[in-house]
Give the backbone structure.
Amino acid sequence: MFPDSTGELSDLLVSISLGVKLISQMVATAGFKGLHGYSGHVNTHGDEVRQIDREADEVLVELLGSSDHFGLLVSEERDDVIATQAIGAGGKYVIAFDPLDGSSNIGSSIPTGTIFCIFRRQDLAKGASEQDFCQAGHAIVAAGYSVYGAKTSFVYSAGDGVHDFTLDPSIGEFVLTEERITVPERGNIFSVNEGNWCWWDDRMRAFIADLKGRNLVAEKPYTGRYVGSLVADFDRTLRKGGIFMYPTDSKRPNGRLRLLYECLPLAFIMEQSGGFAINGRERLIDVTPTNIHQRSAFIAGSPTEMKWFARSVYDYDL
Ligand code: P6P
């Protein structure tokens, strides 16, 4: 289909999938390997870092840092951009990742996951810098996430649909389980942390109350589901439809989730599946990060609920 392709991107996705296999095994055995505890480190966001966060980060930095294709890496667990051995050899891609999102839930067997996105470096002649990551969501070459849950899934898009693979432990390989996932036009599930009610503005409160009442869109109330692990809540929304919301609020004026390696990759996936992902007044695929660790609002889901949310809460027509 793409005669000028070199196979590099496929090579990258295979190396990322190897990292996911290794982390999957790590998550499954963390309990008796003492990885649930805190490492004593605090990351750039002021979060206490669990041992398993550092282990997952190390796996990906080692693996992707030794790839010939990535000139630069960004990890949620590292303050600065990481230059790799490929930087001089013209590694033409850069990758940003959250090695283990949701790890605070790991002691209670709640699903966790890895989230990543890949960009082309903007100018190979220039030295590598943060600027290589400050590209809009629509410049993403490929993005994806894994879910370490009842099964280990690997969901990715390289701009030609969203495809789902399931790890078959008996052969240690990912098997294609679903091609071209399409988010349902409308769902009946809303996903938000209602514990943030006191920090929401009136329009957000009114929207949530509408979802729970006899609302305009659906003759019956929506069901609430909130795991508190982004990959789990997002994956359910992608497959079953509805809406996931983590808006800004008076306590989090810049949002809670990270733009570069959480919101943009998932926004890319949601848009590739026919849904929408916004920060309130903009589609996230049109948003360009200004720094590698900035936060953002993140609302994503089915077209029906997303248009309803954007109009009701932000006077924004999707
Ligand atoms: P809250 C997990 O710590 C995480 O980063 C995401 O995986 C999840 O969606 C979010 O935080 C949950 O945040 O404020 O609802 O606990």
About this structure: The CA atoms of residues 282 and 316 lie 8 Å apart.
